[in-house]
Amino acid sequence: MVVKITTATLIGLDAYKIDVEVDVLNSLPQVSIIGLGDTAISEAKERLRLAIKNSSYDFPQTKVVINLAPADLKKEGTSYDLAMAVGILAKENIIKNIPNNTAFLGELSLDGSIRPISGILPIVCALSELGVKRVILPYQNLKEASFVEGIESLGAKNLNELVNFLNNEGNLHALTQKIDDFLSIEDDFEIDFKHVKGQKNAKYALEIAASGAHNLLMCGVPGSGKTMLSKAFLSILPPLEKSEAMELTKIYSACGLIDCDKPLISKRPFRSPHHSASAVGIIGGGTKIRPGEITLAHRGVLFLDEMVEFPRQVLEVLRQPLEDGVVTISRASGSLKFPANFILLAAMNPCPCGFLGDPKKQCSCSEYEIKRYRSRLSGPLLDRIDLQIEVPRLSEDELLSTCESETDSKTIRKRVVKARKIQLERYKNEGILTNSELSAKLVKKYCKIDDESQKMLRFAISKFNLSARSYERILKISRTIADLEESKDISSSHIARALQFRGLSNI
């Protein structure tokens, strides 16, 4: 009789249930694994043989056939080892009982110990939704799996421990954890806003960006504080919601970036790729499709320092994710969708030498050099960046001042958190979290303006030739400014301030 063991595979961020079918034939000793597996699965033959032997169990002296069903689904990785070993031991009657609705995940070492694998959280979540009641996995993955409700997670250190448990001769390790215990507000940041001299306008723009999750571009001369402001930005972002923490942890788990001792991503990510990064590195892809920087920055920040130094091709791939909050990567082998709802924070100089428009130092660039330099930022990409501000050179008094800024990050973060709570309450039935996620339909519903504001916008549209996208983004920024002031309605003053942050004279 064929033995069937349940396991799962991870493709992108989606998990699929897999049945491991094991049978033996009266033939020469051999292990045959079928079902469209990769090289790692093919190499499992020797891992299985030695792991079972070194755990003091007999390996079948006949032909063992293992089928991974469904056979038309490509399977990768080493997470099937444990399920295949359990199937073989059950077929040999070493394991007397296989409990129903139980899945097995894990990689085997040659000595029979069970090694941790990547992607545990998304796999266990998917198995829970599919009705699986229990999952047995590597002990080192137990902390991560214990966050999933509705399914019992048990950790095993080696094959002997697992066999004893299945034969009712021992117990496995169990653990219960709550996400709330891992979510906390961090107060110790490397750079605080009180350490940033001057730049009151830029700080307010960053506060708006943090409150509504808006994209922001800063343009200014070298040394004006753009990079320092960007690094301090992390200190005013609100703590992660439970749903956001689970989303992020699934992504990092699938990429193998989870620390077994710190199983939950409890802080918003701040990704800062170098300008030599490729389009695949930013957007995702590769031979084995993996998430890129924009997905690793999901619910956090993607910081592009010296934005115009990135190749134009790399910058242009950001256009669709900035609009949709997701990225779909299509290859001949298939199509995968990854979340990419991030805040784009970018900094640039106004020209190659960096001193265009500076009152203290004259620009040495030709008109052609300036035009070529700026051409890497296309109009459609700029249109998707909500806030665009100039960061001027600091004055002598500001530079020499030894006093810290009156407003620190903790004070600003309190205002940001309050604004975010207003948005969470407003959009609780809409499936979104922030103002930046408003669709055209929701903008009409939640961003209503009075006659005076309409007149102001009509003049701005006529004077600056604003696109439909720019118009909607101005309304979203206005909605965030109103939320920071705890105003229910959007007024003309909110519209006026939003317009001030919407354009750069140097671009």
Describe this structure in words.
The protein has 507 residues and is an alpha/beta fold. It folds into two domains: 3-177, Ribosomal Protein S5, domain 2, CATH 3.30.230.10; 199-437, P-loop containing nucleotide triphosphate hydrolases (Rossmann fold), CATH 3.40.50. It has 21 helices and 19 strands. It has helices at residues 39-42, 44-54, 81-91, 120-129, 142-145, 159-166, 200-212, 226-233, 242-254, 279-283, 293-296, 312-316, 319-324, 367-374, 379-383, 396-400, 409-426, 440-446, 451-464, 468-484, 492-500; strands at 3-11, 14-25, 30-34, 63-69, 102-104, 107-108, 114-115, 134-138, 152-156, 173-174, 216-220, 270-271, 284-285, 290-291, 301-304, 326-331, 334-339, 343-348, 387-391. A five-stranded parallel beta sheet has the order 12-15-18-11-19. It has a four-stranded mixed beta sheet with strand order 1-2-4-3. Strand 6 (107-108) and strand 7 form a beta hairpin. Helix 2 (44-54) crosses helix 3, helix 7 packs across helix 20 and helix 20 (468-484) packs across helix 21 (492-500). The longest helix has 18 residues, at 409-426. The radius of gyration is 28 Å and the shape is elongated. The mean pLDDT is 92.
